[in-house]
């Protein structure tokens, strides 16, 4: 692995020392890494763009990143940031060192109390996702990780769907999931409710936790699908009556009568024991996250924002090497202080007799040329030593914008600037 050895010697993007390989797939590898500044462990998923030619794969990757970026929950693996080079995408994620829940289950079934603990954490995460219009669609023990405190973390949103994908009939139609965990309504190919198939998968997971084996299993795939469709399963004798009844509601083959997340929270078996109440409907901690995001957004950017050019969910730049230039806009990275950059821009505006208005801390609006020019220059922090300079036409005439920005202002403030492509060099 010559690429990774080189990266290890020279920290990736100056931020992460890449270590051992944790896992690999057809077009991506996951490595353990260390944040040079904090010393904390992270996991970096490195996606090789050259191995992704299918538009559907590209769409899945964009969707997964978009989804993970907006999820912030104690039982969901956190996406820290996304970086990119000409040939690779780097998804920096929370490192969950406890491994897969699947590995732990393989050693034997859990007690009902331990099964309940993990199931409550799973429902907390899944309910949080559903409230935000995200449906995982591939919940299984292999996609559930455990942290150092023995808490569950939901991972792998590669097959997830969002509300925007729901068709006119109010249903999703993409066939996906893992055979043993797939809901019966997916098998009939008539559309399905993303929330209800996630609840079914949660039911399968709970059965596996408490029984130690799958409720629907057969070496013949079609035979297994028939069992799923008919709902043919038996609970082991050691299960409590409350758990058996609860599982029958989770694994109800009729999605219309299947138990909902709200009903799960009220179920007697689910509520047993002393637990902190699940309140993913309480938006307080989410408001705190939003406030933090807004504060950071006003003065700072990460490479994900550079790639997506402020659009939030437009990830086309991840697969387009020309992402630093867009229509009526351009973005650069500077090693100079924002104060010096703003000063030079203001001096230029004065010489050109342009009206200048400050925006936030490091933003400038310029107007002039008989109303033909409306130019916005904004500077945001990327790292402690790098700042992003973004110029956009805020109105007026496109020709005038190009004349003033490209031929005059850009050369004036260009000293110390590099294109965003250069800011994320290939390893």
Structural notes for this entry:
The chain has 427 residues and is an alpha+beta fold. It has three domains: 2-95, Phosphorylase Kinase, domain 1; 101-281, Orthogonal Bundle (Transferase(Phosphotransferase), domain 1), CATH 1.10.510.10; 324-423, 2-Layer Sandwich (TATA-Binding Protein). 37% of the residues lie in helices and 21% in strands. It is built from 15 helices and 16 strands. Strands 10, 11, 12, 13, 14, 15 and 16 form a seven-stranded antiparallel beta sheet that branches. Strands 1-2-3-5-4 form a five-stranded antiparallel beta sheet. The chain has a two-stranded antiparallel ribbon with strand order 6-9. A hairpin with a 3-residue loop joins strand 12 and strand 13. The longest helix has 20 residues, at 112-131. The model is unreliable at 1-8, 287-316, 321-327 and 416-427 (pLDDT under 50).
